Amino acid sequence: MIKFTPFIVLWFVFLAGRIGLGCLHVGAYSNVSCFENERRGLLEFKKDLVDKSNRLASWTGEDCCSWEGVECNRSTGHVVKLDLHNNAVFDLDRLIFGDKQNYSSIYGETCLGGQISPSLVNLQHLHYLDLSSNYFAGIRVPTFIGSLKNLRYLNLSNAGFDGTIPPQLGNLSALEYLDLGEKSGGFSDEISGYQLSTKSLCANSFNSTIPLWLFNLTSLVHLDLSFNSFFGPVVPHSLQHWTLLSYLDLTGNQFNTSLLDPLFTLNNLVHLDLSDNQIQGPLPFSLGNLTSLSVLHMGDNSFEGPIPSAIGQLRELTELNLNGNGFNGTIPSSLWRLSELKSLDLSGNPLSGELRDIHFAKLAQLKELRLSSPLLALNVSSSWVPPFQLHTIEMRSIKIGPKFPLWLQTQQRVENLDMSNASISDTIPDWFERVYIYILHLQNNSLQGIIPHPDINMTLDILQILHLSDNHFNGSIPDSLCSLQMLVVLDLSNNQLSGRIPSCIGKLKTLGELHLANNSLHGHIPISLGHLNDLQSLHLNRNNFTGTVPFSLRHLKNLRYLDLGNNELEGIIPAWIGDELSSLSFLVLESNNFHGDISMNLCKLSSLRVLNLEDNNLTGHIPRCFNNFTAMTLTELDPTVTSYIEELSLFVKGEMLNYTSTNGRYVIFMGLSGNKLSGEIPVELMSLVGLQGLDLSRNHLSGRIPENIGNLSQLESLDLSKNDLSGPIPQSLSNLDSLGWLNLSFNKLTGPIPSGRHLQTLDDPTIYMGNSGLCGEPLDKSCPDGKSNAGESDGDHEDGKESYFYWFYAGLAPGFAVGLLGFFSVLCFKKSWRYAYFGFLENLLNKVWVEIALLKRKFV
Questions:
Q1: CA proximity to 464, closest of 534, 542, 518
Q2: What is the pTM of this model?
Q3: Which pLDDT score is estimated for 456?
Q4: Counting beta carbons within 10 angstroms of the beta carbon of residue 404, is it exposed (0 to 12), middle (13 to 18) or buried (19 or more)?
Q5: What is the model's pLDDT at position 795?
Q6: 282, 259 in Cβ contact below 8 A?
Q7: What is the enclosing helix (H) or strand (E) of 569?
Q8: By its UniProt entry, which SUPFAM superfamilies does this protein fall under (predicted)?
Q9: What pLDDT band is residue 800 in, cutting at 50, 70 and 90?
Q10: How far, CA to CA in Å, does 58 sit from each of 55, 123, 127?
Q11: Dihedral of alpha carbons 280, 282, 286, 288, sign
Q12: How many Å apart are CA 66 and CA 59, to the nearest integer?
């Protein structure tokens, strides 16, 4: 039998009491619900919102603490958190590369919009408010938010607000985090009274210097001003107040030459990003003061001179990015002693020297290495075992060859390998298959032999991008490539490959780019390519393909770039290209055997920027509906137009020019030369004011050159040669100030050659040869009847008018004097005229005096 001592009894009583209190506490918490005035405030707020995706469906019932995005204090029941940010992931790649209009619409459905009701002021205990990544259609940030005195976190970024930031936000003295990113507006200097520990203002368009009130925020720890339009000095002297600042991001602004030394006194900085600005000059040695720095990004500026040796003092540095500047000379030895480095990017600088094993000896933590300069060479021993395990190796344009570097075998999982233009003249070794790679760039080398059959069961099944272009590979395309089920980009162009395209290529469902141009491939284009639903870029040009364009390609709804030029394809140009491939921006079918009329259905390709149908057997008229190519009316390029790396070769300006998106050269071009087209040049083409190149040469076009050809203000190359054009050359042609190439030869043009303005610089007589009716410079044939060039005759006409008025006014005074002298001479010698004249004057004076007398009497 258990004996209950007084101590045990007391212990059970104590436990019972604790358990009872605990139960009471749980019961009390379970009954906590939001206050009625706060619930009504939230419902009023919801009523003014536009909620297309019904995200706030749970906002019903009495307990607002259980509503989506609402959080209450567990003790008091007051609403303390309202988080309505848009959870939908914004996929920029999908927006740019996919169906832009459809995706924008889908994403927009998930955004809250409408108005923000003042009823939010009922939530006076609110600590946290997040309305980011919605779309409030350009309304201003509400001033009443400044009355939510307990706010510590405010995020209105990417929400479509406009106007200036209201000064009332300066009342939020408890605010610790403010994010107004992607807001187009300006700041009020009155927002300076609160102690911010974290501030993000990224991706705005303020277009000003940094607001002065920011420098009064002495508690700043985290400051993000990235992707705005701030300009002027990088930092004024008042930044000395930012003594606690550890994170500073000024990426993507317009800061230029500035005093960096004051910035380098902020000893607590751990993260500093000045990338993508306009900062010039040498990098100061005072950079070495930032001994706490872990991340330093200064890429894409205009720094010059050597990398300072003081950079070796940044012993805590884990990321160093100086890419895209003008740093030159050798890499300082102190940099190679930064043993904590995980990411090193010195690419895009004209650095020089030889890199040996010893340079990398202390970089055991390194994961990313990016170097590119034709003045750099990697010279390591064949037995070298690096101390690091890299997942990114980008060593473009560095002398690495002639053999494949054996040390790559030691790297267990390389995600990105780029050794393009690296002077490697070797075969791809067997051991290469054992390197895990997602992205492989080996283009612009002298690699030879056959493309290896990859052992898919080992490592290459993860390959997503394969660039082997501009090498010396021969043989056929191996069927085993069809097993690379994650492949997005396959580029085998500019090699010596032969045979047929494997039909199994159609199994690569994720393929977005297929480049097989400039090889010796033959046979029919496989029907299976129509299964590549994600394909956006198809380059099969400069091969020996025969047959017709497969009907199955109509399924490629996302195709933006189709180049089948320089093959032996035949038949008519399919009408379904215009009906089905509505996303096409580039259509190149030049140098084939296509015949028949140009289908009017092509006019539906409103996004078309390049149409090249040259050197076929096309007949009929140029469709007047070509003015529906609205992309050719743009004088500024939409940055979202370009998909992948575009490559385009066009014979313009008398030579073959290469246009790519990577070297910043874009083109809007129409080429119909070398066919059998007839009829007049449609005047509707003159509305395509974005055209940079127009080639209609070597056809049977007749009639006159359109008078308003001068509307094509962007035109750099115009070739109308070898047609049957007649009549005068329009004077408006002289308005084309961008024109650098002109060919009107071998037509039936007549009359004087226009001159004036830019056209006078095109003084090669071969431009006009073969037109017996033309005259004037630069031809040796003078115009008859004293006529000069059309432009000069207009000038002469103007000069003639000026001369006429000059002599008119010059003769006016003498003529008046002579006439007056003659009149008085008559009066002197003819008595009757003299009496009549003076009698007339006497009568006139009498009438004047009478009128004056009457007026005087009237007013006196």
A1: 534
A2: 0.77
A3: 47
A4: buried
A5: 41
A6: no
A7: strand 568-572
A8: L domain-like (SSF52058), Outer arm dynein light chain 1 (SSF52075)
A9: very low
A10: 8, 19, 22
A11: positive
A12: 8
Region of residue 523 (left: phi > 0; alpha: psi -120 to 50; beta: else): left
CA dihedral in degrees (353, 354, 355, 359; nearest 10)?
Answer: -70
Nearest one of 758, 750, 769 to 732, comparing CA atoms: 758
Q: Which residues pair with 287 in a beta bridge?
A: none
Per-residue pLDDT, 212: 66
Round the CA-based radius of gyration of the chain to a whole number and report it: 39
DSSP bridge partners of 321:
297, 345
Residue type, 478: P
Tokens for 139, please give them: 């309304």
Residue 511 tokens read as: 């393929």
Asked if pLDDT for residue 204 goes beyond 70, the answer is: no
Which amino acid, 613? L
Residue among 149, 150, 133, 253 at smallest CA distance from 203: 253
How many residues in the chain? 860
Instruction: Give domain status of residue 36, yes or no.
Output: no
Average pLDDT over residues 179-200: 48
**Which three-class secondary structure state does DSSP give residue 350?**
coil
For 336-348, what is the HEC assignment?
Answer: HHCCCCCEEECCC
Max mean pLDDT range (186-190, 213-217, 408-412, 568-572): 568-572
Residue 461 lies in a domain: no
From residue 277, alpha-carbon distances to 74, 293, 476, 851 in Å are 48, 20, 47, 83
Domain that holds residue 633: 560-788
pLDDT band at residue 273 under the 50/70/90 scheme: very high
* Position 626 in a domain: yes
Distance CA 573, CA 575 (A): 6
Residue with more model confidence, 57 or 646: 57
Q: How far apart are CA 366 and CA 364, in angstroms?
A: 6
* Mean pLDDT confidence for 108-116: 85
Beta bridge partners, 128, equal: 81, 153
CATH number at residue 764: 3.80.10.10
The residue ranking higher by pLDDT, 78 or 87, is 78
HEC string of 434-451 equals HCECCEEECCCCCCEEEC
**Paired sense of beta strands 392-396 and 368-372, if any:** parallel
Distances (CA, A) of 107 to 102, 156, 540, 805: 9, 18, 35, 69
SS3 for 524?
strand
Answer whether residue 661 shows pLDDT above 60: no
Number of domains in the chain: 1
Q: Are 659 and 653 in contact (CB under 8 A)?
A: no
Encode pLDDT of 686-732 as tens digits: 999 999 999 999 999 999 999 999 999 999 999 999 999 999 999 99
Catalogue the E-assigned strands of 457-530. Answer: 465-467, 472-475, 489-491, 496-499, 513-515, 520-524
Token code pair at residue 217: 């925020």
Average pLDDT, the chain: 82
DSSP-derived secondary structure letter, 468: -
Which residue in 424, 408, 407 sits closest to 416, CA to CA?
Answer: 408
Q: Dig out the tokens for 855 from the structure.
A: 């007026």
Q: For 509-521, what is the mean pLDDT?
A: 97
Q: Report how far residue 59's alpha carbon sits from residue 230's, in angstroms, rounded to the nearest whole number.
A: 41
pLDDT at 104: 45
Binning pLDDT at 50, 70 and 90, where does residue 429 land?
Answer: confident
- Helix (H) or strand (E) holding 724, with range, is strand 724-727
Query: How far apart (Å, rounded) are the C-alpha atoms in residues 210 and 231?
Result: 8
User: If DSSP states are collapsed to H, E and C, what string results for 372-383?
Assistant: ECCCEEECCCCC
Higher pLDDT, 157 or 376: 376
